[in-house]
Amino acid sequence: MMSHIPTVARKEFDDAGRSTLLWSLIGLLVGLVVIGYVAIWYTVDDVTAAEVLGFLGLPLQVVLPVAALIAGYMAVVGERRSGSIKLLLGLPPTRTDVVFGKLLGRIGVVGVAVGLAFLVSLVLGAVLFGSVPLIDWLGFAAVSLLFGITFVGLAVGVSAAVSTRGKSMAVVVGLYMVFVALWELLTAGPYYLIYDEGPPVEAETWFLVLEQLNPIFAYTNLASELVAGSIFPFQFQYGLQSMEAYGMAPAERYPGDAPFYLQDWFGVVVMLAWLVVPVAIGYYRFNHADL
Q1: How many structural domains comprise the chain?
Q2: Contact 254, 163 (CB under 8 A)
Q3: How far apart are CA 110 and CA 228, in angstroms?
Q4: What PANTHER family does this protein map onto (predicted)?
Q5: What are the helix (H) ranges across 162-256?
Q6: Domain range enclosing 83
């Protein structure tokens, strides 16, 4: 049976591309890159393009997940809400084509956002700061693309799994708030209750594993290895850990040689898991849903 995934993906790319809010966020991301590069060039002396490259970590963390979630949370459930899903499935595309075609189409939109941000950084880096370290630039761009795709997969998976727009929005917003605003409370909070103190620099292994499972942490830990300087995670802090611990990756906080699941490269596995698992769950539920 011929797959219609590319056809659905092209339609999804066009549909998502009409979202004013989405393109406003992409414009905001590119604008922050321009403002940041110009501001650093104007105010900081003796800085290289390699050092400035790490600046991208903050606007990417702030804007990219939100743009990806907006791009994906209505991908499937929007068709169910309008009733057009029955018409769509009455044509050649199957439920498999719908889910994975929509996933690829929304990934394309986020890929454009990441590509524009890094293209602007390449041009400004070369013009304002001299030669750009292309290997670091490409590695950082690839990791950032995976980061954006992770949140697209999360949103599309949720959209396929639920039956209403409200449920989809509630789940994706809730998960984003867990990653950004509640992660320390959910991890360091129990640590404090168990050990009567906040996590020290050399914390228990289970806590370091939980830290690594946050896709935002996984991204910043991995990206920090690719650029000059450190990229700190965009997260609410409640003072349950020391400031020294906040700036360290799980592998750095492990006494001795860290196991593979605490190494920075394991962040790729973490982000892939947050991409694949929600899509798999959403696909299963959508495939068995009574439409």
Answers
A1: 1
A2: no
A3: 25
A4: ABC TRANSPORTER PERMEASE (PTHR43471), ABC TRANSPORTER PERMEASE PROTEIN NOSY-RELATED (PTHR43471:SF1)
A5: 165-177, 183-195, 205-212, 215-224, 243-246, 250-253
A6: 5-287
Which residues, 6 or more positions from 133, have their beta carbon under 8 angstroms from its beta carbon? 49, 50, 53
Name every residue whose Cβ is closer than 8 Å to that of residue 244 and which is 6 or more positions away in sequence.
201
- Single-letter amino acid code for the residue at 27: G
CA angle 218, 223, 224 (to 5 degrees): 105
Pair of tokens at residue 184: 């320390």
In this predicted structure, the answer to whether residue 2 has a pLDDT above a threshold of 80 is no
* Dihedral angle sign, alpha carbons of residues 282, 184, 59, 127: negative
Report d(CA 169, CA 74) in Å as an integer: 8
Q: What is the pLDDT of residues 142-154, one digit of tens each?
A: 999 999 999 999 9
User: According to the model, what pLDDT value does residue 5 have?
Assistant: 79
Nearest-angstrom CA–CA distance, 219 and 267: 6
Averaged confidence pLDDT in the chain: 87
Q: What is the mean pLDDT of residues 40-67?
A: 86
Amino acid at 168: S
> Which pLDDT score is estimated for 1?
43
pLDDT in tens, 149-181: 999 999 999 999 998 889 999 999 999 999 999
Phi/psi region, residue 110 (left: phi>0; alpha: psi -120 to 50; beta: rest), is: alpha
The rounded distance, in Å, linking the Cα atoms of 288 and 23 is 34
Q: In angstroms, rounded to a whole number, what is the distance separating the alpha carbons of residues 114 and 88? A: 30
DSSP state of 259: P
C-alpha span between 154 and 132 (Å, rounded): 33
